Automatic annotation (TrEMBL):
One annotated GO molecular function: rRNA (pseudouridine-N3-)-methyltransferase activity
Chief site of localization: cytoplasm
Family: Belongs to the RNA methyltransferase RlmH family.
Record-given protein name: Ribosomal RNA large subunit methyltransferase H
CDD domains referenced in this protein's UniProt entry, alphabetically: RlmH-like
Intracellular or extracellular location(s): Cytoplasm
Gene source species: Rossellomorea marisflavi
Record-linked HAMAP family: 23SrRNA_methyltr_H
Binding site for S-adenosyl-L-methionine: L76, G108, F127, S128, K129, M130, T131, F132
InterPro entries the UniProt entry points to: Alpha/beta_knot_MTases, RlmH-like, tRNA_m1G_MTases_N
Gene that specifies this protein: rlmH
EC number: 2.1.1.177
Catalysed reactions, semicolon-separated: pseudouridine(1915) in 23S rRNA + S-adenosyl-L-methionine = N(3)-methylpseudouridine(1915) in 23S rRNA + S-adenosyl-L-homocysteine + H(+)
Pfam families from the UniProt entry: SPOUT_MTase
Amino acid sequence: MNITIITVGKLKEKYLKQGIAEYTKRLGAYAKIDIVELADEKAPEVLSDSEMQQVKNKEGERILSKISPDHHVIALAIQGKMKSSEELADTLDKLATYGKSKVAFIIGGSLGLSDDVLKRADEKLSFSKMTFPHQLMRLVLVEQVYRAFRINRGEPYHK
């Protein structure tokens, strides 16, 4: 399986880089993983609704340019469906079983995802009703994808 994580914003914190590097290395035994970092749109702290929409649209264009037609797209969004680790494992297992070997997870910038990206998504996934920094979400996502592969292989992992 080929897993692509498309994310808006640069990762700066050393501790997050180390955690992501560790899980990416572990995931290498199960899948090819590629993390695509896209620049976030520079914007002032206070934005009007139309300015927010413009920022999301520009970031959305960058995201969509990295998605191929054969990607199964899972957008991380607060309004998405919450799943347990076992349910995420089942989703990835079914995708592999039915020949969907290219999966792209999308993590938006601080303002979220554009409508076009959400429309392109095959499914929307929520990790919580809470808002998390996108840098931290990247670590959580990589860990959960790793956990999903361990679950699907019947290998032990913390509960």
